[in-house]
């Protein structure tokens, strides 16, 4: 069954990444774009993790199941399959959503392939069946989506906020509708 795409504000979530290798680092890099409340636990971290030390908390030590007590969302990314499975079981018992990398059957959520232009975020998933397809589609969209799409969205968002503050309805505002139409034309143009 396909996964339902959902976008959440991660500000209030305490995220735990167990592992210090390249895959764990890639997950940390993705998440650090959306929140600073990330802790990674591992006896050893790859050099790339050091680039993130001002954006996430690094605990250079062995993982303890007590680490789960302070987590709202967990990524198990160790090279120890038994440990990853144990983390999965404990998270399920505690009701903590967990992603066990490279083990789709032990994931409550997947990381989508992302295309981002400021507040415009497009997430793509194959629901775990073929991540390479998601990555390919992400590259196509990233190459074609105008770099200024986020700026256009910001302009539309500011106008919407102004209209609402004045008690108006954005859908009935001609300037707002014109900006939406302009945005659509910009996007459609790259796919012709």
Question: What is the N-to-C order of secondary-structure elements (H for helix, E for strand)?
Answer: EHEHEEHEEEHHH
In percent, how much strand structure appears in the residues?
15-25%
Structural Rg: 20 Å
Could you report the average pLDDT, rounded to the nearest whole number?
Answer: 92
Biggest β-sheet: strands ordered side by side in the sheet: 3-2-1-4-5
Q: Please estimate the helix content.
A: 40-55%
Largest sheet: 5 strands, parallel
Class by SSE composition: alpha/beta
Distance between the termini: 32 Å
Which residues sit in consecutive blocks of at least 5 with pLDDT less than 50?
Answer: none
Helix run count? 6
Sum up the overall morphology in one term.
elongated
Strand runs, count: 7
Brief description of this entry?
With 192 residues, the protein is α/β, with parallel strands linked by helices. The protein is 40% helix and 16% strand.
Q: What brief labels describe this structure?
A:
single chain; 192 residues; alpha/beta; 5-stranded parallel β-sheet; two-stranded antiparallel ribbon; 6 helices; 16% strand; elongated
């Amino acid at each position: 069954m396909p996964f339902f795409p959902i976008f959440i504000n991660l500000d209030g979530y305490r995220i735990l990444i167990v592992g210090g290798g390249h895959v764990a680092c890639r997950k940390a890099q993705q998440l650090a774009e959306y929140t600073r409340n990330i802790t990674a636990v591992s006896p050893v971290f790859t050099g790339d993790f050091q680039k993130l030390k001002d954006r996430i908390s690094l605990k250079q030590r062995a993982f303890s199941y007590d680490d789960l007590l302070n987590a709202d969302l967990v990524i198990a990314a160790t090279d120890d399959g038994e440990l990853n499975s144990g983390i999965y079981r404990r998270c399920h018992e505690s009701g903590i959503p967990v992603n066990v990398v490279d083990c789709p059957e032990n994931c409550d959520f997947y990381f989508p392939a992302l295309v981002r232009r400021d507040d415009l975020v497009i997430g793509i998933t194959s629901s775990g069946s073929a991540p390479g397809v998601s990555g390919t589609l992400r590259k196509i969209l990233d190459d074609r989506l105008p770099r200024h799409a986020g700026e256009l969205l910001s302009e539309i968002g500011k106008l919407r906020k102004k209209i609402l503050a004045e008690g108006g309805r954005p859908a009935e505002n001609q300037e707002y509708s014109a900006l939406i139409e302009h945005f659509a034309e910009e996007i459609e143009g790259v796919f012709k």
